[in-house]
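User: Hey, quick favor. My workstation is busy. Could you predict this chain's structure for me?
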Amino acid sequence: MGSPNTYRLGFLLLLVGLVVCFGLNIGLGSVSIPFSQTLQALMGGSLENQSWEYIIWNYRVPKAFTAILVGSGLALSGLLMQTLFRNPLAGPFVLGISSGASLGAALLIMGTSLFPGFVAFGLTNDISLAVAASIGSFLVLLAVMVVAAKVKDTMALLIIGLMFGSITAAIVSVLSYFTDAEKLQQFVYWSFGSVGNLSGGQLWILFTITLLGILLSILCIKALNSFLLGENYARSMGVDLKKTRYLVIIATGLLAGGATAFAGPIAFVGLAVPHLARQVFNVTDHKVLVPAVLVCGAILMLLCDTVAQLPNSASVLPINAITSILGAPVVIWLLVRKRRMVF
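Assistant: No problem, here it is.
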């Protein structure tokens, strides 16, 4: 465990890294804009090329903030799941919440061709996709909470969550088998993940959901530290296990469900970022880990999005793949360097 000065220096470096990654993410893109012009636009000045100003304020800035919210939300939800289940392999996918979001999107996109009139709305635009994914994730969350009220064993809840994920994945596979090629392509494209194309209203909704999830997580910090030493120890410290489990599950549902609904299923961040933060700060105290994973998740997602958009190119790579390609070697390097896992 490090000293407070060590943590202050670590957070200072992380915040500098966040600002740098934010600037890089806005400065680089398919259209080449001089960095001095980008800075001038961010400082409120007017640019010589009006189209650059439009691109920066209407596309790149909202995309960068979306990346920060999605990365922070997924990373914190992963930390909550790993602590609740005392399992380093747990992540936001273990409760089936992200799978539920995928099921909602799959029903909207592919259900229209299989069941004519099933989705009378038929509007598979970004807004309806986000709504369908949100409904899917919260229906699965509701089912998990009903089960959590009847099951006292946390490990049993983990297995039940994995079963929910398996069921939703199986339904998506059946839908994929029977749907036509065009709808299947649309669903596969959504599953690649993307932090672009969110409107101002959608961004505010995502911000509100993420903020609620963060506030609920902060309320659980003391209980989460007790959970690391086992449920019996937590109970002896006066922690209300049932109430804490509900709060952690709701916070995870808000953070992971909101991010998946608006950015698609992005798997790696929730699993890896908590390990990154533990290795960097060498600590298990959630007073340090919660802000650390929020900043680390935002940095990782900004970096991945910058790479995925292939600067000066019209092509965009799947961000779901880039997060694993960039993040996995970093986690492996940290574990090899430290020779042990902090958990």
